[in-house]
Specification:
The complex is a heterodimer of chains A (522) and B (503).
Chain A lengths: L1 H23 L6 E2 L3 H9 L5 E6 L2 E4 L3 H12 L4 E4 L11 E3 L4 E3 L4 E3 L6 H9 L3 E4 L5 E3 L10 E5 L2 E4 L9 H19 L20 H4 L6 H8 L4 H15 L8 H9 L13 E3 L5 H8 L6 E2 L2 E9 L2 E8 L4 E7 L1 E4 L3 H7 L10 E11 L13 E4 L7 E3 L12 E8 L5 H10 L2 H13 L9 E14 L9 H6 L6 E3 L10 H16 L2
Parallel strand pairs in A: 1-22, 2-16, 3-4, 3-17, 4-13, 10-19, 17-23
Antiparallel strand pairs in A: 5-6, 7-12, 8-9, 10-11, 14-15, 15-16, 18-21, 18-22, 19-20, 20-21
Chain B lengths: L1 H35 L2 H22 L7 H17 L1 H9 L6 H26 L5 H30 L1 H24 L6 H25 L11 E7 L4 E7 L2 E6 L2 E5 L3 H13 L7 E6 L4 H6 L7 E6 L2 H9 L4 H4 L8 E5 L2 H7 L4 E7 L6 H4 L4 H10 E10 L7 H13 L3 E9 L3 E9 L18 H7 L20 H11 L4
Parallel strand pairs in B: 5-6, 5-8, 6-7, 8-9
Antiparallel strand pairs in B: 1-2, 2-3, 3-4, 9-11, 10-11
The chains are: A alpha/beta (522), B alpha/beta (503).
Chain lengths: 522, 503
Amino acid sequence: MRVSRRQFISTVAGATLAAGCTRRASWSGGIVGAAHAAGHRLREGKFPAPVRTETHEAVVVGGGIAGLTAAHHLQKDGRDFVLLELEREPGGNAACGANAVSAYPWGAHYVPLPNVESTEVLALLEEFGVLTAWSADGLPIYDETMLCAEPVERLFTRGRWQEGLVPQTGVSADDRRQYDEFFAQMEKWRAATGGDGRRAFAIPVDLSSRDPQFTALDGQTMRAFMDVRGWTSAPLRWYVDYSCRDDYGAGLEDVSAWAGAHYFASRNGHAANAARDAVLTWPEGNGWLARRLAEPLRAKIRGGCVVWNVEPHNGGVRVDYFDLTRHESVRLESPAAICAAPRFVAQRIVRGLAPVALEYSPWMVANLTLDALPTGRGAALAWDNVIEHSDSLGYVVATHQSLRAVPRETVLTHYWPLDREPPRAAREHALARSYEEWCALIVADLERAHPDIAAHIRHLDVWLWGHGMIRPVPGFIWGAGRAQMAAPHGRIFFAHSDLSGLSIFEEACTRGAHAAAALLAV
Amino acid sequence: METRSARLLFLASVFTIATCGLVYELTAGTLASYLLGDSVTQFSTVIGVYLFAMGVGSWLSQFIGRNLLAVFIRVEFLIALIGGSSAAALFALFGHVDSFRVPLYGIIFVVGALVGLEIPLLLRMLRDRLEFKDLVARVLALDYVGALLASLLFPLLLVPHLGLVRSCFLFGILNCATGLATLGLLHRELPRPRALGAGGLAVLALLGAGFIGSDRLTAWSESSAFADRVIFAKSTPYQRIVLTRSGDDLRLYLNGNLQFSSRDEYRYHEALVHPALARLPQARRVLVLGGGDGLAVREILRYPQVERVTLVDLDPAMTRLFSTQELLTPLNGGALTNPRVEVINADAFLWLKANRERFDLVIADFPDPSNFSIGKLYSTAFFERVRAALGRDGVFVVQCTSPYVARRSFWCIDATLRAAGLTTAPYHAYVPAFGEWGYILASVVPLETEPLLPTGLRFVTRENLAQLFDFPPDMSAVPAEVNRLNNQVLVRYFEAEWANYIH
């Protein structure tokens, strides 16, 4: 009798332990994405000679938003062209994936309501039916299912979820005074114009005022600027740091005050059916836009192609690429080309291009498929869910835009800018980490707000962006290097958000459209 | 020594069996009254069946010739198991069987027959240990005293302190313990005492687990949250369904919110359906979104011109309950199994998005917009999809919470319908269980036909129909924002307006 009781207890305990262990390891997944190996081949530079030469009216190198938008305009003009992309699928930072539960983003996942001056973006959104009509008083009307549904944001602070991201619990009167001052200053700048009559902070960035009262901000870090203003409040600093990391993959110690202010003071989009701070989003993030751009171009897009040489040639352009599927190099010749690759790649492949000093933020993005929606005390699950004082940026819920009343499963996209050490070291460490190590880090981060999350994970994929975003460090936006990047190199036109110093959809889209216009004018 | 102890033990067994048997019988009667109502009928039939079953058991005892003791102990364990878990079993079965009376009387019959079998067996075993006159006197006396004890314990101690389910388990444990004690004392007279003992211990363990776990097994603990007795509770993947009963008043709650009271639901559903449908002599196809209780469908089926009703409700558990459960189908008159009705279990928004069919009338009978999930079903995006599903002269009716308690919420829905390109005609009705309740009739072109009401209505009349559309100053229109997916203002209005209102 005593024996059997002991046996019973040990069996139960064993089963519980076993269940606990298998649960932890029960999800599937791995490190997916960005073709680092193929990209690194570029550095070694050993590619076979081209087996054949093709002639086209144009070549687009790079299939991110800038390249796709440029190609979209070439297509509309009826040009014969080829778009070469390193990855199998185009999209760049707007890459996305899908499983049985939902489509989900691997990178950029929203577009704020476009500013009036973002004409290229407005035109594209109207073409795609995102902007459905214009109201009688001239305001755009957006497709309601693409406007980010309420609740948009929540913050896990002091053991509880609150609505909105600016910390509200446990903040002192002095914190609130600093909040008021800071946001009043940003509001003032939002409406401000410089001596040249331009908006202080515009999108695209090149439409911004060159008035030194604003551009001088580019000479210091956001932190230094806040020090000068006496904005030392810890919750305010946390919030501004979070915002900078969200947009630039680097915090207020690293980015310039001009870039920091741009995040808060540049947006002035309006809509007849949404508030000013609304954003447009899709389950797969900006992958939705990338797909809309890419679909009609399928026949002209060549994926899995490493471009290893771009050079002016006989008044035109010569492009050599290595096809990763066929293991052969091909030469394309055209009167003109658009290089829409990131600038650090362009500097490696475009012959004779003067190098510019560049800094990129590495990122980790994970997608977690869960068998239940995350909960928690306080505010209801939102689209963007941020954990205060976390190294990550929290998670975005891919099923948030679903019209389903009660989603039972979901995919969370967990964003993590790797800015706690210098970019090169962070990049190396990120690539060296095993899948299990990443899982441990991701789960530990999410467990701060959701202690039971591990039990609900069914699948977890990790994507590493070695050069995720251009980093607007002090002096970059209004320095000589950036100005130099925009100039064409012979008949090679450049298009990438790197040229703007801000990695956002609007910049990429505008750069792509402008490069196409320049090429078509040749 | 052994004879004396055995005699005492047998007599104790008589007492236990009598007490436990009566407890099971009373439990079944009470449970049947809780679940089915009409306690006089329930108790009469339960007692009748139980006594009859005892007679059957006694009669059957003649066929047991040998191993009396072994059979006796086995039967005791069986009674413990079946009787002890009967309340939990019946309660759990209530939501899953179409005809509750089958398991109810089945269990009562089995327990009754087993108890009926025990007493003659005991008499026969005691025959050699007592004189006949003493035997009959003691056994019968103990039987009746046990019954008295049970009938006093049951209402005074057990139900108030332990509840039905736990009391039942407790008496099962007593039953089982008596059996084990008999086994322990007389194991030498038994063929395979170890196997029998193991069986008894297993029963004891099951009952013990049931007793400890019965808080989780049942929803009696929920009773405190509801005014009336909870007779059914089920958590589906979508919601928590709770039915309560008080006398002839049956109430349905979804996630704790009252959906109807059987006493006055006709007011709510007549007001939901007739103001629109009475003006649609050409209506052939009707779509009901939500309303898985089938009560709105019942009203729609009064119109012979309606050829097909499509009901789209998210929760299969809801529509199944109201299609098959014998307690509930009389409420909707079997509407959900009517050949004119098609029941689809789907998410209304997604279903509507994929739908290409046109309807003459669409009725949205969703729960109130108390959370963001339900708030989506009152948004411009949703109403635009409904508009797309309306025929040229189609009409849309939506239940809109209380314009008295949640005035801004009500007029917010009105503003949202208008923003979706519909002409609205708001109205309201008094439903005692809810208070003043609001609806909005919306259409692409204003409805102008004269109403033609079916016969047999208890609330809506030709005379009072116009009155429903009149709003007194305390409920009249107030400015409100349009509810969109990207602002969900309705949920915020609703939360604020109902926050301090106790209903």
